[in-house]
What we know:
There is one protein chain. The protein is α+β, with helices and mostly antiparallel strands. The protein has a single domain, classed as Lipocalin (Beta Barrel), CATH 2.40.128. It has three helices and nine strands, in the order ααβαββββββββ. Strands 2-3-4-5-6-7-8-9 form an eight-stranded antiparallel beta barrel. Strand 2 (48-52) and strand 3 (58-62) form a beta hairpin. The relative contact order is 0.20.
Amino acid sequence: MFRVIVVAVSFGACSLAAAQTLTLSDIKAKNAVQLSAEDLKQLIPGAKVMHRTPMGTTRRWENKTDGTLVASSDASATGGGRAYRVTASGTWRIAENGRFCVAIKWNMNNEDSCRYVFKADGKYFGVGKLQDTEPVGEFEFSK
């Protein structure tokens, strides 16, 4: 009986988390503006970055002007509900098509991703594809 309750609660929590995930459509409804490559060239180099993934993991790094970074992550989305800190080295770049790209060599896997960046309500959001149903992650950039 206890297992049934735990499984039911787990599915409920997952459904709630999925229901709270923002999509590109959600931020478009807030009059989001897509940043251009030129906008990103002003914002990204030398910035300290905080990124909350759509799954809830929080990651931080600084975009060094030489294109490198050292990231840390609480890895909460992969820890079975428990957060633990990991660090990894990587690189960042701004693609010609206006995407912010990072390549990070995490212990368990390598990440190589590019995101279109939008600004809405004073916040930044990243999305992998320009599809309304695509989940977005939140970014904070500071210098």
